[in-house]
Amino acid sequence: MSLEQEVLQRAKAWTTETYSLQTRTRVKDLIEEGGDALMDAFYKDLDFGTGGLRGIMGAGTNRINKYTLGMATQGLSNYLLKQFPNEEISVAIAHDSRNNSKEFSHKVAQVLAAHDIKVYLFEDLRPTPELSFAIRHLGCKSGIVITASHNPPEYNGYKVYWDDGGQLVPPHDKGVIEEVRKVKPEDVKFAENSPLIFSIGKEVDDAYIKEIEKQCFGNDGKDKLKIVFTSIHGTSITSMPHAMALCGFTDFHIVEAQSTPDGNFPTVKSPNPEEAAALKMAVDMAEKIGADLVIGTDPDADRVGIAVRDLNGEMALMNGNQAASVLIYYLLERWKENNRLTGNEFVAKTIVTTDLIDKIAEHYNVDCPNCLTGFKWIADVIRKNPEKTFIGGGEESYGYMIGDFVRDKDAIASGVLLAEAAAWAKSRGSSFYEMLIEVYHKFGFYQEDLISLTKKGMKGSEEIIQMMKDFRANTPQEIGGERVVKMLDYDSSKCTDLLSGTLEAIDLPKSNVVQFITDKGSKITARPSGTEPKIKFYISVNEPLTKVEDFERVKKSLEGRIADIKKSLGL
């Protein structure tokens, strides 16, 4: 049977009585239309990956809808019942501001309830990190959040957490996936108006924000720091203003035009604080009122972007590596200042995040394990080391975590602590930007860049697979005029020294990532995204900053090296 015939057969199955009239009608239209629209909707089952589901909303096996979410929840329910026999099982559920998120969260709750599983369902939209917090706060075995993070408006998704508040890791990720793959659409049961579904809200909100307050170090300069905040039509509007007020920030201004939750994200092309355009309204407001700091969050409030005043007094966007470096430096400096460092603490980062953080941690005699991309791996390190104290962690994609009361990246807590770092610097006659330069001067000037290539649909997926095959089969001898001396293949778990030919094992779970290290210490990484139809290239270069006065000169030199690397790779 050809792929086209297989797709048609799959589609016709969705025109039976198992599915709603609306779904059946839409699928019949797709069948009549044919072509890529039909192919992309049905050429495969939507992958339940190690983090859950994410995809375009609509009818089809490769789409987010109540049936694909129902099957995922049926599989999760079956796995939970096997893992916790003869125990009361409860699951917390939250959702973001996306279209259909609330409806989907209720459908998911109904599937769990149909299996006699108790459900704590947030009364309305809430940040993803609060869901992570709620799992341990309420003693749940698992948690689910309906979100597609910062993806475009047509997307939605489904993330699953375990009883430690972290996203699924081995063996539970594979165990849940196996159960999900056994489920057929007709197997899914929905229990409407079940007494097992409990609404939660303010009590959990207050407990979560109280924990954020505990992470703060004091009120140094907080009343002198002017902040502009935008939720970019997302969930952080429910928590950030309250958290900032409780933690002592009084000069706090909201971009009202972006404060209403709206899954269409009407004022931006993309609700992603990694992109300058998403923060433009906030930056414009900051310029107008003379603010020191801009804070913007993505729809489910796990990522945060900031802008600060540069040396010329202009608002400058900080990338994720810069913000993470200053944040970790601030945390460790304050821990040291308060005599809290005992040698038993650690911070953490991902393999594609700046190595500047490793240098900072080393200076303070604090361990810094490097994890695969995704905060679930940082949560896993915390879970496996209960005798050690986790201070904070970060990843280049604008995600940071403070303390271990949340086991996922947290835009609310990190937004508060980034603001506190800025206030602390200002109270010392400095600034956030000058603190970044201070970090470069002490530990080395690291400059990073990220290039994302979007490859949509089945053809795009095939292109990405081929690109990764080519990198492994044809290791470049040099990139951007710099000699490649090491290749790390995280899928084969091997690090090859290209000078000596020796191999070392990589002690991390397998992942489809290839990394090249040059003789100048540059690091180039290729990684297909696990949540978007993209392949990402991470570039990091560095050199010493022996004098603060040389900042601009060294910055230009590093930018030139990045440009050479991009040209060499055809990016």
TrEMBL record:
Named cofactor requirement(s): Mg(2+)
Gene3D superfamilies named in the record: Alpha-D-Glucose-1,6-Bisphosphate, subunit A, domain 3, Alpha-D-phosphohexomutase, C-terminal domain
GO terms for biological process, alphabetical: carbohydrate metabolic process; purine ribonucleoside salvage
InterPro entries for the chain: A-D-PHexomutase_a/b/a-I (IPR005844), A-D-PHexomutase_a/b/a-I/II/III (IPR016055), A-D-PHexomutase_a/b/a-II (IPR005845), A-D-PHexomutase_a/b/a-III (IPR005846), A-D-PHexomutase_C_sf (IPR036900), A-D-PHexomutase_CS (IPR016066), Alpha-D-phosphohexomutase_SF (IPR005841)
Domain of life: Bacteria
GO MF entries: magnesium ion binding; phosphopentomutase activity
The keyword RNA-binding is assigned to this record: no
Keywords, alphabetical: Isomerase, Magnesium, Metal-binding, Phosphoprotein
Domain (Alpha-D-phosphohexomutase alpha/beta/alpha): residue spans on this chain: 47-184, 206-307, 319-440
PANTHER family, per database record: PHOSPHOGLUCOMUTASE 2B-RELATED, PHOSPHOMANNOMUTASE 45A
Family: Belongs to the phosphohexose mutase family.
Identification of the protein by name: Phosphomannomutase
